[in-house]
Amino acid sequence: MAKSNNAFIKKQKELQRKKKREEKMERKTERKKNSTGGSLENMMAYVDEFGNLTSTPPDKK
């Protein structure tokens, strides 16, 4: 007797899930490899006396 169609569908779905997980891991590693880093100094923004955002800290007076 032949296997039921149900078993074939289950195998196909499992293969699809496995492929999707592998692709997700590849995208994750690619993002990590291409990241510029998230140090605190890179993320800081300062406001000058006119209310504009700048990347340099204000002069201490």
Q: If you had to describe this structure to a student in words, what would you say it looks like?
A:
The protein has 61 residues and is mainly alpha-helical. Helix content is 56%, strand content 7%. Strands 1-2 form a two-stranded antiparallel ribbon. Strand 1 (46-47) and strand 2 form a beta hairpin. The model has no long low-confidence stretch (mean pLDDT 87).
Give the C-alpha Rg: 26 Å
The number of helical segments is: 2
**Oligomeric form:** single chain
Strand order of the largest sheet: 1-2
**How would the global form be characterised?**
rod-shaped
Note the beta-strand portion.
5-15%
H/E series: HHEE
Structural classification: mainly alpha
Which stretches are poorly predicted, pLDDT < 50 over at least 5 residues? none
How far is the first residue's CA from the last residue's CA? 89 Å
Task: Specify the helix fraction band.
Answer: 55-70%
Question: Major β-sheet, in short?
Answer: 2 strands, antiparallel
Count of DSSP E strands? 2
Mean pLDDT rating? 87
Please give a handful of descriptors for the protein shown.
2 strands, 61 residues, mainly alpha, two-stranded antiparallel ribbon
Secondary-structure topology with pairs:
Elements: H1 5-34, H2 40-43, E1 46-47, E2 53-54
A few lines on this structure:
With 61 residues, the protein is mainly alpha-helical. It is 56% helix and 7% strand. The protein has helices spanning 5-34, 40-43; strands at 46-47, 53-54.
